[in-house]
From TrEMBL:
SUPFAM superfamilies: ABC transporter transmembrane region, P-loop containing nucleoside triphosphate hydrolases. Residues 339-574 form the ABC transporter domain. The keyword Oxidoreductase does not apply. It comes from the Bacteria. The keyword Metal-binding does not apply. InterPro entries: AAA+_ATPase, ABC1_TM_dom, ABC1_TM_sf, ABC_transporter-like_ATP-bd, ABC_transporter-like_CS, P-loop_NTPase, Type_1_exporter. It is found in: Cell membrane. Residues 23-305 form the ABC transmembrane type-1 domain. GO terms for molecular function: ATP binding. It is a multi-pass membrane protein. It comes from Pelagibacter ubique. It holds the Pfam family ABC_tran. Its main location: membrane. This is ATP-binding cassette, subfamily B, MsbA.
Length: 579
C-alpha cells in the first residue's frame, strides 16, 4: 500500500470531516509561531534601547510586550493542542467503529482466518499510532514549521551569515530522521505481531484454565508466557531505543552548530559586523528553534509508525465479503419451509478436497429431518450452508423453491434459528440473553419462552431472577441450564426453520427429558434439520439422512435404514445404542 494512497485515504475517510477544526487549530499555530518569534525579536530592542541606549521611556513597555508575547504563546499552544486532542479522539473512535463494523459483518470464513489477539492489538495499539499520525503529526507539522519559519526570519533579520551556518543543521537532522523512521516502521510491525500473539495467548489462558490445571501444565504455560512476553519486550525495547537514538544525534548536531556559531560570531564581532543586541536576539531565536527542529526531525518517526499501522488496519477495514446479495434480490417468503440441496459442492479452503460432494437433500417442510453420520462426515457443514455462513462452490439451495443465493440475506436469517451444542451466551442478564432473539420482546413473551424451554424453574431460584448476570459465556450456569436458555432464545425468535446441533454430552435423566420436551415445543410443526445424537430424536424424525465423506449414502426411517444401510447400522450400534 503506497504512502500517498494511505494519506489520501486517512484524509478522505477520517480527517476531512474535521477539516474546520483542524483549520482552527492551524490558526492558533500561526499565533504561536508569531508570538514565539516576537519573544526572540523583542530581545533586540530590549538590549539595544534599555541596556545600550539606557532609554527610560521603554522600561515598562518592552517587559509588558514580552509578557504579552509569552501569554499569547501559551494560550495558542494550549488551544491548538486541545482542538487536535478532540479531533484525535474522534478519529480514534471512527477507526475503531469501522474496524468493529467490518469484523461484525465479516464472512464466517474470514473470521475463521482471523487471529483474535492480533485484532485486539490492531484495535488498540495500531489505532493509537494512526491517531498520532492524523493529530500529533498534523499539529506538529504546522506548529513547528510555522514557528521555525518565524524564528528563521528573526535570525536572518538579525544576521544572515550566522543564519546560514545554523541552516546546515536542517539537512543533517532530516537525513538522520529518515533513516530512523524506516527502521521504526519495520520494528513496529514486528512488535504488533508479537503483541497479537500475546493477546491470543491471554484469551486461551482464560478459556483453558481448567485444562491447564488438570494436565498440571502451569510451569509449561509459565514458560510459554515468558517466551511471548520476552519476544514482545525485545521488540518494544528496540523501538524505544531507536526512538531515543534521535536525542544524541540531535544533541551532537546542536553542539557542532553552536560551536561553529560561537567561533564565527567572535570573528564577526571583531570585524564590527555584529552588534551584541543582534547576537542575543539571534541566539534566543536559535535556542527557541531547537525544539521545533527536534520535533520536526522526529515527526518522520510518528509518520512512519502511523503509516505502518495503517498498512495493517486499512486492509481489515477493507476486507470484502464474498457472501453478498444484489440490490434487486427479493425477500425470501417461507410458506411450507421445504429446503432442497441441489448438487452442492463445497470446501472450506482453496487447496483442499471438497467437503460436500454433489450433495442432494430434500428437507420436508414443517417436519423433522435428522442428519446422522460419523465425525467429520459433513453434517455441521450442511447446517452451515443453510443460513449462508458459507457459500457453496456450485449447486443451489432452495427454500420453498427460492434460491437462498438470490434473496436478501437478512430475510433468510430472520427465518432461521440455530441451537448449537456449544451454547453461546453473553455476559449479560438472563433477560437480555433470551431477548437477544428480539430486543423488543415483552417480559411476558420472555417468561413464556423460558417456561416452554423449562428454563423458568432455575431462573426463579436465581437471586435476581431474570436480572441475574450470568458471567462470560454463562459461566455461572450448568450445561443443562445453558442449553435451556439457548432453546428459550430460539423459541422467542419464532422462526419457521430450526437448525439443531444436538448436544452429545449426556445430562441427568430429568434434565434430559426437560430439554427433549423443550426441543419438542421449539420444533413442533417447524422445518427442523437436526444433527442427531439421541435415539429419541432419531425415532421422532420424519426422515433420516446418512452422511458419509460429504455424500448421502442412505435415507429413510430408522427401521428402513437399519435394514438397508451398513454405515447407519454401524453408527447406531456404536454411537446411539450405547447412550
Ligand atoms: N471451519 C473449517 N475450516 C476448514 N475445515 C473445516 C471447517 N469445519 C469443518 N471442516 C472440515 O470439514 C469436514 C466436515 O466437517 P463437519 O464439521 O461438517 O463434520 P461433522 O459431520 O459435523 O462432524 P462432527 O460430528 O464431528 O461435528 C471435516 O473434515 C472438517 O475437518
Amino acid at each position: 500500500m503506497k504512502s500517498s494512497y494511505i494519506l489520501k485515504r486517512l484524509y478522505k475517510d477520517y480527517t476531512k470531516k474535521y477539516f474546520n477544526r483542524i483549520l482552527l487549530s492551524v490558526f492558533f499555530t500561526v499565533l504561536l509561531a508569531g508570538s514565539t518569534s516576537a519573544v526572540a525579536y523583542l530581545l533586540d530592542p530590549a538590549i539595544k534601547k534599555l541596556f545600550i541606549e539606557k532609554n527610560q521611556t521603554l522600561i515598562y513597555l518592552i517587559p509588558i510586550l514580552i509578557i504579552v508575547a509569552f501569554a499569547l504563546k501559551g494560550f495558542s499552544l494550549y488551544t491548538a493542542k486541545v482542538i487536535m486532542i478532540t479531533v484525535a479522539e474522534e478519529v480514534r473512535k471512527d477507526v475503531q467503529v469501522d474496524m468493529l463494523d467490518s469484523l461484525i459483518n465479516a464472512d464466517t470464513q474470514l473470521i475463521d482466518s482471523k487471529h483474535s489477539g492480533k485484532f485486539i492489538a490492531n484495535l488498540t495499539n495500531d489505532v493509537n499510532m494512526i491517531t498520532n499520525l492524523v493529530s500529533t503529526a498534523i499539529l506538529n507539522l504546522f506548529k513547528d514549521s510555522l514557528t521555525l519559519i518565524g524564528l528563521l526570519t528573526v535570525m536572518f533579520y538579525q544576521n544572515w551569515k550566522l543564519s546560514l551556518i545554523a541552516l546546515i543543521m536542517i539537512p543533517l537532522a532530516s537525513f538522520a530522521a529518515r533513516t530512523l523512521g524506516k527502521r521504526i516502521g519495520k520494528v513496529s510491525t514486528q512488535q504488533m505481531e508479537k503483541a497479537g500473539v500475546l493477546n491470543t495467548y491471554l484469551i486461551e489462558i482464560f478459556k483453558n484454565h481448567r485444562l491447564i490445571k488438570i494436565f498440571q501444565k502451569e510451569n509449561y504455560e509459565n514458560n510459554r508466557a515468558k517466551k511471548f512476553i520476552n519476544e514482545l519486550k525485545e521488540k518494544s525495547r528496540k523501538i524505544q531505543i531507536v526512538l531515543v537514538r534521535a536525542s544524541p544525534i540531535m544533541e551532537a548536531l546542536t553542539g557542532i552548530m553552536i560551536a561553529c556559531l560561537i567561533f564565527y560570531s567572535a570573528k564577526l564581532v571583531v570585524k564590527d559586523e555584529l552588534e551584541v543586541n543582534n547576537f542575543f536576539s539571534f541566539l534566543a531565536a536559535m535556542m527557541l528553534a531547537y525544539q521545533p527542529v527536534r520535533s520536526l526531525a522526529t515527526l518522520n518517526i510518528t509518520i512512519s509508525q502511523g503509516l505502518a499501522a495503517s498498512r495493517r488496519i486499512l486492509p481489515i477495514i477493507d476486507d470484502k465479503n464474498n457472501i453478498s446479495e444484489n440490490e434487486s434480490d427479493p425477500e425470501i417468503k417461507i410458506t411450507k419451509g421445504e429446503i432442497k440441496f441441489k448438487n452442492i459442492n463445497f470446501k472450506y479452503n482453496e487447496n483442499e478436497d471438497n467437503v460436500l460432494k454433489d450433495l442432494n437433500l430434500e428437507i420436508l417442510g414443517g417436519k423433522m429431518t435428522s442428519l446422522v453420520g460419523h465425525s467429520g462426515a459433513g453434517k455441521s457443514t450442511i447446517l452451515n450452508l443453510i443460513p449462508r455462513f458459507y457459500d457453496c462452490i456450485n449447486g443451489d439451495i432452495l427454500i420453498d423453491e427460492q434460491s437462498i443465493y438470490n434473496t436478501k440475506i437478512y430475510s433468510l436469517r430472520k427465518n432461521i434459528s440455530l441451537v448449537s451444542q456449544d451454547t453461546t451466551l453473553f455476559d449479560d442478564t438472563i433477560r437480555n440473553n433470551i431477548a437477544y432473539a428480539n430486543i423488543n420482546a415483552s417480559q411476558k413473551d420472555i417468561e413464556a419462552a423460558a417456561k416452554y424451554s423449562f428454563a423458568d424453574e432455575f431462573i426463579e431460584k436465581l437471586p435476581n431472577k431474570y436480572d441475574t448476570i450470568i458471567g462470560e459465556n454463562g459461566i455461572r450456569l450448568s450445561g443443562g441450564e445453558k442449553q435451556r436458555l439457548s432453546i428459550a432464545r430460539a423459541i422467542l425468535k419464532k422462526s419457521p426453520i430450526i437448525l439443531l446441533d444436538e448436544a452429545t454430552s449426556s445430562l441427568d435423566a430429568d434434565t434430559e427429558s426437560k430439554i427433549q420436551k423443550a426441543i419438542g415445543f421449539l420444533t413442533k410443526n417447524r422445518t427442523t434439520v437436526v444433527i442427531a445424537h439421541r435415539l429419541s430424536t432419531i425415532l421422532n424424525s420424519d426422515k433420516i439422512y446418512v452422511i458419509d465423506g460429504g455424500k448421502i449414502i442412505g435415507k429413510g426411517s430408522h427401521k428402513e435404514l437399519l435394514e438397508n444401510s451398513i454405515v447407519y447400522k454401524n453408527f447406531y450400534e456404536k454411537q446411539i445404542k450405547k447412550d
